[in-house]
Amino acid sequence: MAAPLKKILITAGPTREMLDPVRFLTNLSTGEMGYALARVAASKGYQVSLVSGPTDLQPPKGVRFYPVVSAAQMKKICTELFPKHDGLIMTAAVCDFMPDRSERHKIVSSKGMTLRLRRTPDILASLARRKGSRIVIGFCLETRDLIRRATDKLIRKRADGIVANFYDPKRQVPFGKRRVTVHLIGPDGAVRSLVNRSKAQVAGAVLGWMQGLRRVR
């Protein structure tokens, strides 16, 4: 039986991919889920490192905090920190695309432009490939076919578990301090649903689930 997890690396918030010094591509993530996980984990005695994109949140007490902006910066610091931890919880909503080039000066708006994009680094897959005995949990947000797409991500990324969120701007919005419904999908495809929970409650459940995955390794 594997030893329990003690040191956890958590990512949170969005990333920003700069078009010029003042404009960027990003997403709706507020960082609330990742910060809740860091806060609850620290309160339970875990040693926590929190790597966060830009948010309006204060880092929880007792947590080692690493602020970043871009996906490339997040990958760099996570790659350095990952070997020093027992597990990773990748809640960050990493921007999937970045501009092919970032202008040094503000783009003149009257000129118009054609935006060329390329993929950002796949941090979850990159770290999961070298996980060894570590437990790696990803997060997934979808607007359709939630369980199927989340399960596919679990397999493709070689994670040990996925926390799946559904987003519908008219019916179910998981951002900010709202209560959420999430689905924990394990390596055997089993699905555990947490309905209408606070993010602190989800955090506690995810940490317990993660320890269980460690024990059955």
How would you sum up this structure, described in words?
The protein has 217 residues and is of the alpha/beta class. It has a single domain (7-103, 116-215), classed as CoaB-like (Rossmann fold). It is 27% helix and 26% strand. It has helices spanning 32-43, 71-81, 123-128, 146-157, 199-215; strands spanning 7-12, 17-18, 24-25, 47-52, 64-67, 87-90, 97-99, 117-119, 135-142, 161-166, 180-185, 191-197.
Gross CATH architecture: 3-Layer(aba) Sandwich
- CATH top level label: Alpha Beta
Number of helices: 5
In total, how many domains does the architecture comprise? 1
Q: Specify the biggest β-sheet.
A: 8 strands, mixed
User: SSE order in H/E notation?
Assistant: EEEHEEHEEEHEHEEEH
Gyration radius over CA: 17 Å
Q: Give me the CATH superfamily.
A: CoaB-like
Q: How many beta-strand runs?
A: 12
Structural class: alpha/beta
Record the SSE blueprint.
Elements: E1 7-12, E2 17-18, E3 24-25, H1 32-43, E4 47-52, E5 64-67, H2 71-81, E6 87-90, E7 97-99, E8 117-119, H3 123-128, E9 135-142, H4 146-157, E10 161-166, E11 180-185, E12 191-197, H5 199-215
Parallel strand pairs: 1-4, 1-6, 4-5, 6-9, 9-10
Antiparallel strand pairs: 2-3, 7-8, 10-11, 11-12
Helix pairs in contact: 1-5
What is the compact description of this entry?
The protein is of the alpha/beta class and 217 residues long.
Q: Which structural traits does this protein have?
A:
217 residues, alpha/beta, Rossmann fold, eight-stranded mixed β-sheet, two-stranded antiparallel sheet, 27% helix
